[in-house]
């Protein structure tokens, strides 16, 4: 199946699928079911800028996680939720992306009683394919959602004064000769409707950690991100990602990233590859 890419701007029209506060803070302004496809739109902006003079590829992660997860969620059995277990993204055209909005089109090639697999394409306003994504999810019986409403800041948009993606996320980045550490200062700001850290934010942090390592090792650019979600962090715990280079070459690199909470529990395992790329 090859869906059409691009699509009309949804603007501020009421969404036909759920948009949480995290999605809105990442510029997602519209989401609708269109036959066998789900289409989402995200506005770009300065909040996407990385620390190396171009947009951060990881800024796509919440859009992808939302589009893929929501697609499978619509096919869930009655009385169940859908939880993402793996999320992957390939950057086809590296940033900067000269477009006002990004359009995600997602669909479900296979759904089973226990979960499903979804794919996604992200295009710019001109229909150029810039990224593709995929996710595996599993269905779990619905229960009482642990939503920490009192911990979620009830406003949209980036923090006041945020001028780049790291400030938008609220992360502190530190490096040594071997590793990159990305610490999330206010995890509760990015809780989803289940009361746990949004999967797209985990993926964003993994890409940030890898991008810093790539920049130190040469001019490699993020090309592929694969995240496995192992377990949720302890509620209210501090969150950090550690990026460890496996290989940094002239044209290709691999970074292993581990996400954990301050109890020492490993919550996320990610592999990020980089390639020498030319922006278009």
TrEMBL record:
<keyword id="KW-0378">Hydrolase</keyword>
<dbReference type="InterPro" id="IPR006683">
    <property type="entry name" value="Thioestr_dom"/>
</dbReference>
<dbReference type="GO" id="GO:0047617">
    <property type="term" value="F:fatty acyl-CoA hydrolase activity"/>
</dbReference>
<dbReference type="InterPro" id="IPR029069">
    <property type="entry name" value="HotDog_dom_sf"/>
</dbReference>
<comment type="similarity">
    <text>Belongs to the thioesterase PaaI family.</text>
</comment>
<feature type="domain" description="Thioesterase">
    <location>
        <begin position="194"/>
        <end position="267"/>
    </location>
</feature>
<dbReference type="InterPro" id="IPR003736">
    <property type="entry name" value="PAAI_dom"/>
</dbReference>
<dbReference type="InterPro" id="IPR039298">
    <property type="entry name" value="ACOT13"/>
</dbReference>
<protein>
    <recommendedName>
        <fullName>Thioesterase domain-containing protein</fullName>
    </recommendedName>
</protein>
<dbReference type="Pfam" id="PF03061">
    <property type="entry name" value="4HBT"/>
</dbReference>
């Amino acid at each position: 199946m090859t869906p059409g890419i691009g699509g009309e701007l949804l603007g501020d029209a009421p969404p036909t699928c759920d948009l949480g506060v995290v999605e809105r803070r990442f510029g997602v302004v519209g989401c609708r079911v269109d036959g066998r496809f789900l289409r989402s739109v995200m506005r770009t902006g300065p909040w996407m800028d990385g620390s190396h003079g171009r947009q951060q590829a990881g800024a796509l992660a919440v859009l992808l996680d939302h589009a893929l997860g929501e697609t499978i969620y619509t096919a869930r059995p009655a009385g169940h939720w859908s939880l993402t277990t793996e999320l992957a993204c390939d950057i086809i055209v590296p940033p900067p992306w000269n477009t006002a909005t990004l359009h995600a089109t997602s669909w479900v090639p296979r759904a089973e009683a226990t979960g499903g697999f979804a794919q996604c394409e992200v295009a710019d306003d001109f229909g150029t394919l810039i990224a593709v994504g995929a996710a595996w999810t599993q269905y779990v019986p619905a229960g009482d959602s642990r939503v920490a409403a009192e911990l979620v800041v009830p406003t949209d948009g980036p923090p006041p004064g945020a001028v780049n993606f790291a400030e938008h996320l609220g992360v502190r980045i530190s490096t040594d000769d071997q590793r990159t550490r990305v610490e999330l200062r206010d995890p509760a700001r990015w809780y989803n409707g289940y009361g746990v850290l949004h999967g797209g934010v985990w993926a964003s942090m993994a890409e940030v950690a890898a991008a810093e390592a790539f920049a130190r090792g040469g001019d490699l650019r993020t090309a592929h991100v694969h995240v496995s979600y192992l377990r949720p962090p302890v509620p209210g715990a501090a969150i950090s990602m550690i990026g460890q280079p496996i290989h940094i070459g002239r044209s290709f690199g691999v970074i292993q990233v581990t996400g954990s909470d301050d109890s020492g529990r490993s919550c996320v395992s990610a592999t990020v590859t980089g390639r020498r790329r030319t922006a278009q």
